[in-house]
Amino acid sequence: MKKIYLFLTALLLTVAAGAQTFKDWTSTNGGTNNSSSQNSYGICAFAGCTFTFDWSVSSESNYDWLIVTLDGTQILKKSGTASGTYTHEFTESGVYTFVAQYTKDYGGSSGSDQAKIINATITIPETAGKKGDVDGDGTVDVADVTEVVNIILNPDSDDDTPTTDSRAVDLGLPSGLKWASCNVGATKPEEYGGYYAWGETEEKSDYSWSTYKYCNGTFNSMTKYCTSSSYGTVDNKTTLEAGDDVASVKWGGSWRMPTDEEQRELINNCTWTWTTLNGVEGYRVTGPNGNSIFLPAAGYRGGTGGTSGYYWSSSLCSSRSYYAYYLYFYSGYFEWYNDKRSFGYSVRPVCP
Question: Which partner for 258 in 67, 170, 262, 305 could form a disulfide, CB atoms 3.0-4.6 Å apart?
Answer without folding.
Answer: 262
